[in-house]
Amino acid sequence: MTRSEVFDSSAKCNGVLLNSVLLTGPNLTNDLLGVLKHFRKEMVAVTADIQHMFHCFLVRKDHRNYLRFLWHKDNDIDNGLVEYRMRVHVFGNSTSPAVATLRLRKTAQASGKDFGNRVTQFVSRNLYVDNGLTSSTTKEQAINLIKVTQKALAIYGNLRLHKIALNSEEVMKALPTNDLASNLKDLDLEADSKVAPTGGHTIPRLELYVAVLAIEIAQYITYNLYISIEAVKYHTDSKVVLGYINNETRRFYTYVANRVERIRRFSDSSQWNCVPTHHKPADSATRSFEAHEIHNSKSLYGPKHLTLQQEEASETKFQLVDPDSDKEVCINVDIKKTCATLAHNIGIDRFLHFSTWDSLVRGVAFLKWFCRSHRAVETLSLTSVDSYINAENFIIRSVQLEIYPVEMVCFQQNEPVPKCSQIANLNPFLDEQGILRVGGRIVNSDLSLKVKKAISVPGRHHIAMLLVRHYHGKVRHQGRHFTDGAVRSAGFWIVGVKRLISSFIHKCVTYRKLRGKTECQIMSDLPEDCLEPSPFFTNVVVDAFGPWTIVSRRTRCGYANSKRWALLFSCLVTGAVHIELIEEISSSAFINAVRQFISLICQVKIFWSDRGANYIGAVDKLRIDSINVEDGPFRIFLYNSRTTWIFNPPHSSHMGGAWERMIGITRRILDYMLLNNTGKSLTRDVLNTFLTEVSAIINSRPLVPVSTDPENPLILTQTMLLTQKTDYIFTSDQ
């Protein structure tokens, strides 16, 4: 009898066992029942064994220290113990089955180019660890499979396939004697069956369980036989189960419903047939019969009528058996559903068809005008401001009624909002028009209602995205800060607005086009003049940018074009900007622009600029002192002179980051305006208007992060500090 050493890698030493620290790898061992099913498929059965499979695969040298053990020197128990370490994988290690099986399959795959695909299939499908079980159609195929597999494993893996046994003596004589198995015995296997428990289940439930078991067996056999099965037929003698499977009108309780759903998921009702009780093979396991009748039992060969002819598809529709008295069938209950809807709710799912806020408002306004005009009711003009505002309020109110139904009912009944509500912490209330607004503590202020009590908009609804898209376009596709300030200034409080704006901007094509990714550059230290507390435009930076081609005059042949530039004045302290349009890049044009700016803003203390030729000439003609920042002895003169002009050193554009960024923002906003002006003549007046609007947009950006606290609704901007006004309106697109 062959003996195999087994190393107990599960033995604990100081509370640690070897198998607990080893990675076992995936379970690559074939399912034993599947191997046996495939083994019984054909007439010629073959069994074999791989000699010392685990010991045929070496362990990496840096891993062998984990397989150290103590044993007697020279394998003599009279000698002392010495330390050994295994060079191969051993029985008992949790990693050995996965490693050995994987390497064995890799060996079979490598031999495929010389020995064909059948060796690979035998190793990957018909081996259970190191024991192979398969079957062939003919004796010649069985002999060929054994010989080819032996040769392939020997050449590519130094593995020996032996202990070969077949159910044919003729085939065994064709193989070497030393490769055959010895001490073979005949076994007479009998079929196994399941017996139901003595209690706890009704007969219909047990029969339904058997139907589920039939589905599982069919799936298991189909998967493990590796053959294509065109159709599967199921047979049962229970008309109760057939009624359950074919039912389309009644509901079941949980136990039956779950199992019927599983049966219907993997089979169709037409696949199920009724078999008479006296033909059912399962009864052979529970009924007594003579011993000589065992080999002819239906449990081994199945009903004879199934093998005599091809069955036709069952077209019989089995009905439920006495459903009114069946405890598994739910009682029929007549349910009457009453729905109460508000008359002014048109269904907010229709809003999903609109892609812009303006189109949605215009559509609702037209619908209201159309309905009123056909009822001979006096209505507002479609182009009036009141019509637009009424449509906006109608949209907001409709969305709030559907998204916040519980909160709206609480307000109507003068009850507090539930604490689980997502807007409970905003202290919401209903205004006179039935619109939900966020609360606050500045009710007694003179601010407008939209500033004190913003309208609450559900952040997950489509209109929230429309509002963000609308005001993102109003600020000419600027960043989240601009968009957030524009939405809040318009009087809307969108739940989760920052996350929504970030998501929208990430998908905005125009924004990503205008704000392409640039290289990251370390910024220089801020100049002292940027940190000096002072009024607006006391310390100013100046830079010119452009040009743009405009239509200057009409000629006989069409239009005469000319170029225009712009001069940007930016406050170093507050970041406010002022833009002047100039006719040409010259000292005279520059002097005129500076004089206009000084006349508008009053005295300027310091001008900063680069060393452009037009700037140098302007300093001489305006009689303004000019110095270089590198000239240290003249720094004291900066504070004694009435107006001082500071030039950056030559070729030091990085020192002008304070105003170069403002020019970048200006260009992005202006680029969007010019995108919408495609195909139109760009005149000086239009360009001047665009530049004025750009200044307004930049000066309306929030100076500090927009607060999410409803108690702090004001948005601090440069425009608010300059004009002392909190409300401002962006002009519509040209």
Short synopsis of the structure:
With 734 residues, this protein is of the alpha/beta class.
Q: How would you characterize this protein structure?
A:
The structure is a single chain. A hairpin with a 2-residue loop joins strand 15 and strand 16. This protein folds into four domains: 12-179, Alpha-Beta Plaits, CATH 3.30.70; 203-308, no CATH class; 348-514, no CATH class; 530-699, Nucleotidyltransferase, domain 5. Residues 340-344 and 627-641 have low confidence and may be disordered. The protein is an alpha/beta fold and 734 residues long. Helices cover 37% and strands 14% of the residues. The radius of gyration is 44 Å and the shape is elongated.
The CATH C-level class name of the largest domain: Alpha Beta
Q: How would you name the CATH homologous superfamily of the largest domain?
A: Ribonuclease H-like superfamily/Ribonuclease H
Whole-number total of structural domains: 4
Name the structural class.
Answer: alpha/beta
Q: Which CATH architecture of the largest domain would you pick? A: 2-Layer Sandwich
- What does the largest sheet look like? 6 strands, mixed
Q: pLDDT below 50 for ≥5 consecutive residues: which ranges?
A: 340-344, 627-641
Supply the number of helical segments: 26
In whole angstroms, the N-to-C terminal distance is 98 Å
What is the tally of beta strands? 20
Strand content: 5-15%
As a percent range, the share of helical residues equals 25-40%
CATH topology name of the largest domain, in short, is Nucleotidyltransferase, domain 5
Rounded Rg: 44 Å
